Amino acid sequence: MIFDSLKNKDNYKWNSFLYQALCFLDELPPDALPEANTVLIPDILFCNPVSLSTRPESECMYEAHRKYIDVHYIVSGIEGIATADTSVLTEVTPYSEEKDIAFYSGKEDGRYYLSSGQFMVCYPSDAHKVAIALGQPAPVNKIVFKIKVED
Fold it and tell me: N or C: which terminus of the chain carries fewer CB neighbours within 10 A?
């Protein structure tokens, strides 16, 4: 897992797909969401605009993916994300090959509050519980990139 700010994007040149995603973000106008899902590299790198309302943690579940690495980037608002290694969690909804997702329950290893300009990279073993409210529920605009895991 990586937690960082877009201003440090040049630190990620070692990963061409992640770096390309960060450069895409850096070229967007401030507070802008892409109008639709955007493919940067077919079958390898794409992003989805997401507008959500944060909610109490009791309404959130851990999720993890096997085919794609997630990159969560906050455009506006503040979103809490709890993390834990999938090996210490209990799977509550089996993995769906079609949707590339499984849901889990258990205790967190860490918690991060992402605000505008910050991002988090979640690898397949990094379960993440997204949309956690910091106090009262509030709107968040974010972009979620998917980077294909090498076969």
Answer: C
DSSP per-residue letters across 127-149: EEEEEE-SSS--EEEEEEEEEEP
What is the rounded distance in angstroms from the CA atom of residue 100 to the CA atom of residue 68?
A: 8
For residue 141, pLDDT beyond 90: yes
Full residue range of the structural domain in which residue 17 is found = 2-148
Number of C-beta neighbours around residue 80 at 10 A: 20
User: What is the Cα–Cα distance from 55 to 45, expressed in whole angstroms?
Assistant: 29
Q: What angle do CA 43, 45, 49 make, to 5 degrees?
A: 115
Q: How many residues does the chain have?
A: 151
Token couple for 139 = 């709107």
pLDDT tens-digit map of 74-87: 999 999 999 999 99
